[in-house]
Amino acid sequence: MESENKSDIIDSRYKEIKINKMIVNGKEQEGNIIDGDDTKNIQELNVTVYTQNE
User: Fold this and answer.
1) Chain center to CA of 41
2) CB neighbour burial string for 11-45, b if at least 16 within 10 angstroms, e if fewer
3) Inter-residue contact 1 to 36 (CB < 8 Å)
4) Which long-range contacts (CB under 8 A, 24 or more apart) does 21-27 make?
5) What's the CA gap between 12 and 6, in Å, rounded?
6) What are the C-alpha distances in Å from 29 to residues 1, 7, 21, 24, 34?
7) How far is it, in rounded angstroms, from Cα 1 to Cα 21?
8) N or C: which end of the chain has fewer CB within 10 A?
9) How far apart are CA 3 and CA 27, in angstroms?
């Protein structure tokens, strides 16, 4: 039951935002989807997301 309550809290605070720029492992990405080739054979992914102001 406790996990249900946490889910409700997270869902109620969810808000869609527009991504301005995304940097994956030091390289700027086009769009907002991380390419599968960027995640092959690695244990850790460093992602920085810059959002647009509303």
Assistant:
1) 20
2) eeeeeeeeeeebebeeeebeeeeeeeeeeeeeeee
3) no
4) 21/49, 21/50, 22/47, 22/48, 22/49, 22/50, 23/47, 23/48, 23/50
5) 10
6) 40, 30, 7, 7, 7
7) 38
8) N
9) 36
Residue type, 10: I
Tell me if residue 19 falls in helix, strand or coil: strand
Write out the chain's pLDDT in tens, 54 residues. Answer: 445 555 555 666 667 888 889 998 898 988 888 888 878 888 898 999 998 876
Residue 6 is encoded by which pair of tokens? 């946490």
